[in-house]
Amino acid sequence: MTAFSTLPLKPALLASVETLGYSEMTPIQAQSLPAMLEGRDVIAQAQTGSGKTAAFGLSLLQSLRVETIRLQALVLCPTRELADQVSKALRKLAANIPNVKLLTLCGGMPLGPQLASLTHDPHIVVGTPGRVQEHLKRGSLHGGGIKVLVLDEADRMLDMGFSEAIDDIVGRIAKHHQTLLFSATYPDDIREVSRRVQRNPVEVIVEAPADGKPAIEQQFIDVEPARKLDALAQLLTGERGQHALVFCNMRRDVDAVAEELDARGYSALALHGDMEQRDRDEVLVQFANRSCAVLIATDVAARGLDITALPLVISYDVAHDPDTHTHRIGRTGRAGQTGLAITLCTPRELPKAENIEQVLGRPLPWRPLKLSPPRGKTLNLAPMKTLVIDAGRQDKLRPGDILGALTGDAGLKADDVGKIDVFATRAYVAITRSLANRALERLRAGKIKGRNLRVRTLA
């Protein structure tokens, strides 16, 4: 590990790094940042949670010239959720640089407000390929001054059919720019994209820890289809099951598994693409703030999830291909943590498991699971509960205002208040479950920032 202070970073960025508690660089940062700061193109194989966002974020902020009011950096992400996470991370890194304008431009959102925001050029845009391409075509986004292009989770963008959009975007921005490509897997089509859009890139592949201990322990469990839900419920009763992500291949199975787990007493929620965007946002908020113990999701919907300490990932269905399997297990064991990734495999799914084994080049770690007799409903509730406040950034509401109201008039201790998320028109705050009703009553009876605001429990 190497200290960030050894890099030629602006004092403002070093101050942000210190504020965020990043004492030493992660392997991906140590191996990629020197080349990126020199202006070299980089192609890096890096899992989510490895510190890649901070790596390319520090690099593009280092080259940013705030006094030049034009778009200088473009970050493309496969989903809106991931784009939102990247935007939040970049804003934190830029906290000590005054007047940095960053916009998030994603599909599924109204075009009007985005067009209004683009009347003055931003310095940085983070967005999904389709919407960014649309703005470039309309002329509402000007790519002639872009110095840095980042393709984040490039393999997922290709899986989602964004290859042509990426090529079109590259053709519409400044010819001479730095391209940084990050991907969790390294298939041939990623190498082909690199050949098209990069110039002599530095290749970075983060190896396993030198001590030989993998951050992620994998287990494959043979199970009959009729007992799959029983097996899942049993695996979720342990300590790791208090915060677990479960993958299903089909949207309908996501809903079915979530409903069954809820009926058995688990704090479980579903996440998939058929849901309204606000519902998806609220599910992600609840899982991140520990108001939901188990999240059942499709692969695409889970891409925006940014949870560092996620101890358990379960594949309820074997992934369709080895690359998807790699992405799934990469949701745990992140940022220096250890994690457990379990795959449930029925006899019909064995060919898919054998395909994963062939790509891994080693035998899969099968283990037996002795199933207990089915039990009645037992409560396996998440430790927190979420309150919704119908005010947000547009109302000048800040996390500190909410915390102050809860620890003041509401009489809670700071330790009883969890993660606070403030969106444009509403805010979400996690409260220790046993105190949530008391906090709700006190907030309704009192004021937040001198105002009476509508507060309710998020079901």
Automatic annotation (TrEMBL):
Gene3D superfamilies linked: 3.30.70.330, P-loop containing nucleotide triphosphate hydrolases
Keyword Hydrolase found: yes
Stretches of the chain forming a coiled coil according to its record: none
Listed InterPro entries: DbpA/CsdA_RNA-bd_dom, DEAD/DEAH_box_helicase_dom, DEAD/DEAH_RhlB, DEAD_box_RNA_helicase, Helicase_ATP-bd, Helicase_C-like, Nucleotide-bd_a/b_plait_sf, P-loop_NTPase
Gene Ontology cellular-component annotations: cytosol
Keywords: ATP-binding, Helicase, Hydrolase, Nucleotide-binding
Helicase C-terminal domain sequence ranges: 228-380
Domain Helicase ATP-binding span(s) in chain numbering: 33-204
Molecular function terms from GO: ATP binding; hydrolase activity; nucleic acid binding; RNA helicase activity
One Pfam family cited in the UniProt record for this chain: DEAD
Motif range (Q motif): 2-30
Hydrolase in keyword set: yes
Residue stretches making up the DEAD-box RNA helicase Q domain: 2-30
SMART domains: DEXDc, HELICc
Family as reported in the entry's similarity comment: Belongs to the DEAD box helicase family.
Listed name of the protein: ATP-dependent RNA helicase DbpA
Species assigned in the record: Dyella choica
Taxon lineage: Bacteria, Pseudomonadati, Pseudomonadota, Gammaproteobacteria, Lysobacterales
